[in-house]
Amino acid sequence: VVYIWSLPFLAETGWVNKCEMYPKCEWVGLSVSNYISTPQATGAMAGLFYYPCIHMWMNAKEVDYDRCVYLSLLIFQFAFGLFLSAPIVEYSNMHGMSVVTFCVASLFHFRAMMRHCLSKRLWKCRVLLWVSSFAFMQVFVLTFMSHMDHRILIDNCPWLFYVTEALGLSSQAIFPMLWFYDPECEQQACPSTPASLPSPRTELCGPSAGVVAAASASARAGNANSSSAKSSLGLGHASPGGGRSVMLLDPSDAV
Asked: Tell me: the pLDDT tens digits for 93-143?
C-alpha cells in the first residue's frame, strides 16, 4: 500500500516511469500502470504484492469446500500476473484486458469470502469491498470518458485516474489481512454438510461434519448394546425416573 501511494515521489528519482508530458500523460493522465512500466518498478510491485497474494491463498485453504473461492482466485492470479508482465507502454490492449479480468475476478473472490468471514471483522471487510467496487467502477467510467474525449482527463484532472486506481489496489491488498475464518458458518456456506443432520450449537463445516456424525452414531450404538447386555444379565432395573440403576448381586444367589 505504501509503495502504491509513493509512486509519484519515486518518479523524481527515475525508479518509476515518467511520461514526457508529466503529469499530463496520454489518454487518462497518471496511472499506476504507467508508473510501473520500468523493469525495477514492475519487480518491486510483484515482490511487494507477494504477501497479499499468498495470504489470499492461505485464506482460501480455510474454505476449500467452496469451489467459487478457488475458481475466482485462479482467474485473479493469472490476470494479475499478466498485468505485471505486459507493460501498458508496450502491450496496451493486453494490459487493459488483464486489468478488467483481475478486477472482476477479485471482486467475485472477495464477495465469496464474505460468506465465511468472522462476524467481528465482517463490517471491515464489507467496507473494503465497497471501496474496491467503487474504485474499479470509477476506473471503467474514467476509461470510457477518455475514449469519448481524449483531453478531458488530461487537461482537467490528470491525477484522478491514479488516485482511483491506487484506492482500489490498496483495498485489495488490505482485505486478505483483515479477513478471518468463522468456524460457525451458516448452512448455505457449508454445501458439503448434509441438510438432514441435526443442528448442534456449533455448525460444523466441510468434511469434518460427516466424520463427527459417524462417530456420534457409533457411540450411540455402543451405548445401546451395553445397556441391552446389562439388562439380559439382570444387572439393572428401570428406575421410576426413566433411568437405569445398577443392582449388585448377592453372593448367596450364586449358591
From this structure: 899 899 999 999 999 999 999 988 888 888 999 999 999 999 999 988 998
